[in-house]
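Practice problem 4.
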C-alpha cells in the first residue's frame, strides 16, 4: 500500500487552490469598499492570486508563532507596554467621571451632532462646487495626511475621536473624590487609553493603511506582521534598523581607552586632541538605566568629543548592565563607585580635584555623593558639579510617579528574576510616557504600513536597554520617588554616612529641559533650594535628551539664563534672557572660570601612551553586556 499525503491528487490541489482563492477574495473584499472606486475595478486572476498569497502568509505566520509560543508564560506583552493595566486603572476609576450622567450624555450628544453637521456640511458644500478644503475644527498630527480630510467618512471618524478624547480628558481633569495621586493616575490612564483607541491604530479605520493594503494587495500587512512577531519574540518594540549601528564603528567612536575596571563599572579616558588641556579633568557619570553613549552617538552629536576638543581631559563611567552577580547591589554601591572613580582619576593624573557631571539618576546620586564627601570633610575632591536633568526633590517628579504605587511596585518585584529587572520593562515604561510618539507611531508605520525601519542613532540607543539591580531599583523608587527622603536632612544614610544636601558647597551648574517629561524642569529647579554654595541654573529648549545633546554646530533650540536670585522657576523664567542655540558654550565658559589652569597634554593625559597600562579600547566591554 502506498502512503499518500493530502494535496497529492489533482482533486486536492483544486481544493487548496479554491481555498486560497477564497481567502484572497475575502481579504480584498474587506478592504475594497473602504477605498472609493475600488469596487468598480475588475480584479484579474493574477491579482486574486496575489491577495491569496498574502492571506496564506498571514495565516501561516500566526499558526507558526502560536505553535512556537505554546506553553511559554514569559510576559512578553508586559515588556512591550502594559496597555491593559492602564485600561483596568481607567475602568476602575471611570465611576468618578460624569459620563454616565444623563445630563452629560445629553450634552455630549448635542455637541456631537453639531460637530457632525459642521463636518458633513462642508463636504456637501464641496459637492456643489465649493472647492475649498474642509476646515476641520480639531487638528492632530496623527491625522495630518490629506486622506483623513478628503473623505467624509474618515474626516468624521477622526474628528469624533478627537472630540471624545478631549471630553474624556476634561472629565478626568475635573474628577471629584480622588486623592491628588489617584487623580493624576486617572489623567494618565485616560490619555493612555484614548491614545490606544485612535482610529489611526486600526487597519480598517485608517485610510492610509487601507490604500497601502489595496496597492500592495496585502503585502504591507504581511511585512507588518513579520515585524510584530519579531518584536513579540524579543519582548521589545523596535524603533530603528537593528543592523544599522555598531558600537565602535559608527556610534561611540570617540578614541579612548578603558583605564580602570570594577565589577560595577569601567572607566574610560578619552584621547586629547589639543596640545594643552585644563589641569582639572572632567569625570562624567551617565545614568545606569541607559548606555553611556548617549553622550557619544556620533562625531556630530557627541558631547564627549566636543568636550575633548575644548581642552578637557574627559573620563566617562560605563556602568555594567545588571546580572545575577549584582543581586545585592544597592544605591550605596553606586555612591561608592562614584567616589572610587573620583579618587582613581585624581590619583592617575596627580590632581587634587575633578569636575563632575551627573546625568539624570546619576545626577541624583552625584548629589548624594557630594553630601557624603562634605560630611567626611573631603568636599575639595570635586572642583565643580554639573547636573543634567537631575532631580533630588521628587515632590513634582511628573508622570513617572504614576508608576510607583504599591500595585506597580509589587508587579515590578514579581517581574524581577535572579536579583535584577530586565531593562525591557523600564523601556516599556518610558515608551508609555510618550505613547503617541514611541508606541503608536511605530505600530502604524511598522505593523500596519509595513515600512522599513529607519537608521536613527538616537532610537538605536533608546532600544539598547540595560538591566537594573532589583534591590537598588525598589529602594530608589520607594525612598526617593514615593517618600522623597533625600531632601530631608539625615533621613537617608549612604555608606554609613548621613546625607544632608545642605552641606554641598561645591559650585554647581544645573541644566533642565523646558519640555522634559521625565525630569520636569520645576522638579530639577528644586535642587537649587538645597545647596549652600554657588550655583548657576540654565533652562534649555526641548526635553530630556535633545535638551542635553544639542551641539553648537546644529544651531537648534535655545536656552534661558537669569542672573538674578530667583526663588522659583516661574520667577526665573519671567526674568530670563533667551539665547538661540546650544548652552554648551556657556557651560565650558563657566568650567573655565572654576579652574582655568592649563597643562601639557602628555604622559597619562594620553591614555595608552608609553608606560601606561590600559585594559582595552573604548567603548569597552561593559557597554556591550546584556
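Answer key:
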Amino acid at each position: 500500500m502506498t502512503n499518500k499525503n493530502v494535496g497529492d491528487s489533482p482533486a486536492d490541489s483544486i481544493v487548496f487552490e479554491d481555498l486560497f482563492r477564497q481567502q484572497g477574495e475575502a481579504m480584498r473584499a474587506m478592504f475594497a469598499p473602504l477605498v472609493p472606486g475600488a469596487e468598480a475595478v475588475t480584479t484579474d486572476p493574477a491579482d486574486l492570486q496575489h491577495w491569496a498569497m498574502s492571506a496564506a502568509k498571514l495565516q501561516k505566520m500566526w499558526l507558526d508563532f502560536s505553535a512556537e509560543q505554546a506553553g511559554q508564560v514569559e510576559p512578553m506583552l508586559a515588556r512591550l507596554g502594559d496597555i491593559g493595566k492602564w485600561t483596568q486603572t481607567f475602568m476602575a476609576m471611570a465611576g468618578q467621571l460624569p459620563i454616565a450622567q444623563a445630563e452629560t450624555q445629553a450634552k455630549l450628544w448635542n455637541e456631537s451632532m453639531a460637530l457632525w453637521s459642521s463636518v458633513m456640511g462642508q463636504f456637501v458644500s464641496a459637492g456643489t462646487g465649493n472647492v475649498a478644503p474642509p476646515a476641520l475644527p480639531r487638528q492632530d498630527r496623527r491625522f495630518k495626511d490629506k486622506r483623513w480630510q478628503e473623505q467624509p467618512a474618515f474626516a468624521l471618524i477622526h474628528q469624533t475621536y478627537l472630540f471624545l478624547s478631549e471630553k474624556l480628558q476634561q472629565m478626568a481633569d475635573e474628577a471629584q473624590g480622588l486623592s491628588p495621586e489617584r487623580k493624576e493616575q486617572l489623567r494618565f490612564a485616560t490619555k493612555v487609553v484614548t491614545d490606544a483607541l485612535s482610529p489611526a491604530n486600526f487597519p480598517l479605520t485608517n485610510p492610509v493603511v487601507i490604500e497601502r493594503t489595496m496597492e500592495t494587495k496585502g503585502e504591507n500587512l504581511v511585512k507588518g506582521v513579520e515585524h510584530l512577531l519579531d518584536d513579540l519574540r524579543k519582548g521589545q518594540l523596535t524603533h530603528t534598523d537593528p543592523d544599522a549601528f555598531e558600537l565602535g564603528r559608527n556610534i561611540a567612536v570617540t578614541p579612548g581607552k578603558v583605564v580602570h575596571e570594577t565589577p560595577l563599572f569601567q572607566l574610560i579616558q578619552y584621547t586629547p586632541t589639543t596640545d594643552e588641556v585644563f589641569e582639572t579633568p572632567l569625570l562624567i557619570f551617565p545614568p545606569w538605566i541607559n548606555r553611556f553613549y548617549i553622550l557619544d552617538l556620533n562625531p556630530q552629536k557627541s558631547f564627549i568629543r566636543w568636550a575633548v576638543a575644548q581642552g578637557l581631559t574627559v573620563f566617562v563611567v560605563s556602568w555594567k548592565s545588571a546580572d545575577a552577580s549584582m543581586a545585592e547591589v544597592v544605591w550605596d554601591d553606586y555612591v561608592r563607585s562614584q567616589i572610587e572613580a573620583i579618587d582613581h582619576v585624581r590619583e592617575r593624573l596627580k590632581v587634587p580635584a575633578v569636575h563632575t557631571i551627573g546625568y539624570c539618576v546619576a545626577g541624583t546620586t552625584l548629589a548624594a555623593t557630594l553630601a557624603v564627601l562634605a560630611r567626611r570633610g573631603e568636599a575639595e575632591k570635586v572642583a565643580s558639579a554639573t547636573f543634567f536633568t537631575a532631580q533630588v526633590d521628587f515632590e513634582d517628579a511628573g508622570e513617572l510617579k504614576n508608576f510607583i504605587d504599591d500595585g506597580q511596585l509589587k508587579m515590578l518585584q514579581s517581574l524581577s528574576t535572579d536579583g535584577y529587572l530586565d531593562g525591557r520593562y523600564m523601556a516599556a515604561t518610558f515608551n508609555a510616557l510618550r505613547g503617541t510618539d514611541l508606541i503608536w507611531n511605530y505600530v502604524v508605520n511598522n505593523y500596519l504600513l509595513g515600512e522599513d525601519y529607519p537608521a536613527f542613532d538616537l532610537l538605536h540607543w533608546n532600544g539598547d536597554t540595560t538591566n537594573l539591580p532589583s534591590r537598588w531599583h525598589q529602594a530608589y523608587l520607594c525612598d526617593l520617588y514615593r517618600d522623597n527622603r533625600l531632601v530631608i536632612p539625615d533621613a537617608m544614610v549612604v555608606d554609613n554616612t548621613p546625607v544632608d544636601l545642605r552641606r554641598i558647597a561645591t559650585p554647581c551648574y544645573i541644566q533642565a529641559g523646558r519640555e522634559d517629561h521625565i525630569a520636569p524642569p520645576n522638579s530639577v529647579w528644586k535642587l537649587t533650594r538645597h545647596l549652600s554654595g554657588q550655583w548657576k541654573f540654565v533652562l534649555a529648549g526641548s526635553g530630556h535628551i535633545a535638551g542635553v545633546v544639542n551641539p553648537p554646530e546644529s544651531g537648534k533650540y535655545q536656552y534661558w539664563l537669569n542672573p538674578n536670585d530667583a526663588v522659583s522657576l516661574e520667577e526665573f523664567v519671567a526674568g530670563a534672557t533667551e539665547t538661540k542655540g546650544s548652552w554648551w558654550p556657556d557651560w565650558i565658559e563657566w568650567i573655565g572660570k572654576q579652574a582655568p589652569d592649563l597643562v601639557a597634554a602628555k604622559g597619562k593625559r594620553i591614555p595608552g601612551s608609553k608606560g601606561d597600562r590600559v585594559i582595552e579600547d573604548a567603548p569597552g566591554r561593559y557597554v556591550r553586556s546584556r
